[in-house]
Design a protein that fits this description.
The structure is a single chain. The protein has 474 residues and is of the alpha/beta class. It is 36% helix and 18% strand. β13, α10 and β14 form a beta-alpha-beta unit. α10 crosses α12. The chain is globular and about 70 Å long. It binds zinc ion (ZN). The site of zinc ion has 7 residues, from loops. Belongs to the metallo-dependent hydrolases superfamily. ATZ/TRZ family.
Length: 474
């Protein structure tokens, strides 16, 4: 029986709500991959110990939306100042056809390392890098890379049967798949990788890339039924921009959320990335059905899409989680930057809507209550576990999986002078000073390092592969 006592933490945020959001600790005992006890604990004979003096402990982050292959597509000048549509054409659609297996694997590794070093223990990747006759198994590459680092991994199997461009104009690697091919691959992946356990290390999710563009309505309905018959969750992009609203209106004379309802794509087993542009009736419908959001504030900011109404969604009953989105529209795809942005932007959104009292408004009162650090930590941990259905993950309490991020506050002036150390990693922003990341009780990051990963070497490989990619594009 392996037991580890984490001792003397300065503060602990649990991922829970209200009065349970903080635990006095200062110690946490882990046993056999679970949290065995929290409180003032004495070491047991022969027990391993980890000193957390001057550290704060959060649940390991749960990232619910990513495109790991984009980790080699950061800061592309052609797409940097573009909005969503032109950016898709300039960067992912232009460069993705030229990525080979070696580039794909390296991109996945870079993204996963970046996440782990921010304290992220669970990654849901929305991978849509599939095409008919693809010469390698990209899904297996993603699972293997996550497994090598010791991270929990949820593959959201993207792709679709439709193309936004005439098929004759598409390179082979951007060609859509027939529905039976798509579903057969989901079946294959689920039988190999999907574990329904509440603390699963591997899951598979059915995730056509974006509902109105990826499949016909009857195919979306069939896909939802297929997923539900196998206990698989559903994920996609939705309502990222006003252009999205125009598309669904033009095609179906509906709002995007109503369209999803019409094809059985709402419910507690569904979560959507973005949900930036929503009408009040759409917020109410998402809430009433318990549908989830992967809030991606940095990507939404970078692409000039807007700021999602996260507090309104949560108040309506929707499940809120945080995703970093692909690194090609978010040059820092890590969970600490993302949650720092979520904290600031929800407050900025509320402030932006504030109206002076003499004009009939309520002054600044709303903005002050918009989002606390505890809210953001809850969204990024327990909220993520909720949308992924990983009920044993995302909170720090006895019996839960031992997934913990332990941050140092003693070696960076940005934390010096903090009256409330618990909020430091999120509120003070900047790079994580990760002392340790544990997933299922196993060390993923120790003393700020990933065993077996040489960051300088990884950076050299990235520069080499970016040069090779651009040479191939010509
Ligand atoms: Zn995305």
């Amino acid at each position: 029986m392996s037991s580890l006592l984490i001792r003397n933490a300065t503060a602990i945020l649990t991922g829970l709500k209200g009065g349970e959001a903080r635990h006095r600790g200062p110690d946490i005992r882990l046993r056999d991959g679970r949290i065995a006890a929290m409180g003032a604990l004495a070491p047991e004979p022969g027990e391993a110990q980890l000193d957390a003096t001057d550290c704060v402990i959060y649940p390991a982050w749960v990232n619910t939306h990513h495109h790991l292959f984009q980790s080699l597509l950061k800061g592309d000048p052609r797409g940097l100042d573009a909005t969503l549509g032109p950016w898709l054409q300039a960067t992912p659609w232009r460069l993705r056809p030229h990525m080979d297996e070696a580039m794909f694997r390296l991109a996945a590794r870079i993204g996963l390392v970046e996440l782990a070093l921010s304290g992220c223990g669970t990654v849901a990747d929305h991978n849509y890098h599939y095409w008919p006759g693809m010469p390698y198994d990209g899904s297996a590459v993603l699972f293997e890379e996550a497994q090598a680092l010791g991270l929990r991994f949820v593959l959201c199997r993207g792709g679709g049967t439709l193309s936004r461009v005439a098929l004759a104009d598409l390179p082979p690697s951007l060609q859509p798949e027939p529905l039976d091919t798509y579903l057969a691959d989901v079946e294959r992946l689920a039988s190999r990788w999907h574990d329904p356990a509440p603390d699963a290390m591997h899951r598979v999710v059915v995730a056509p890339t974006t509902p109105p563009h990826a499949m016909r309505p009857d195919e979306l309905r069939e896909t939802a039924a297929f997923a539900r018959a196998r206990g698989l969750r559903l994920h996609s992009h939705l309502s990222e921009t006003v252009a999205y609203q125009d598309t669904v209106h033009d095609l179906h004379r509906m709002k995007p959320v109503q369209f999803c309802q019409s094809v059985d794509w709402l419910g507690p087993d569904v979560w959507f990335a973005h949900l930036v542009k929503l009408d009040p009736d759409e917020i109410a419908l998402l809430g009433a059905t318990g549908t989830g959001i992967a809030h991606c504030p940095q990507s939404n900011g970078r692409l000039g899409s807007g700021i999602a109404p996260v507090r309104q969604l949560e108040a309506a009953g929707a499940a809120v989680s945080i995703g970093v989105d692909g690194a090609a529209s978010n040059e820092a795809a890590d969970m600490l930057s993302e949650t720092h942005a979520a904290w600031l932007l929800q407050r900025a959104r509320a402030g932006d809507a504030a109206v002076a009292r003499y004009r009939g408004g309520q002054g600044e009162a709303q903005a002050a209550a918009a989002a606390t650090v505890e809210d953001v930590v809850r969204w990024g941990t327990a909220g993520g576990a909720q949308v992924l259905g990983l009920d044993a993950v995302g909170t720090l309490q006895p019996g839960q999986a031992a997934d913990l991020a332990i941050y140092r506050l003693d070696d960076d002036p940005r934390y010096f002078g903090l009256h409330d150390p618990a909020i430091g990693p999120v509120a003070s922003g900047g790079a994580a000073h990760l002392h340790a990341l544990l997933v299922a009780g196993q060390p993923v990051v120790s003393q700020g390092r990933l065993p077996g990963i040489d960051l300088r070497d990884l950076g050299q490989q990235a520069r080499r592969e970016v040069r090779r990619l651009l040479a191939s594009v010509g």
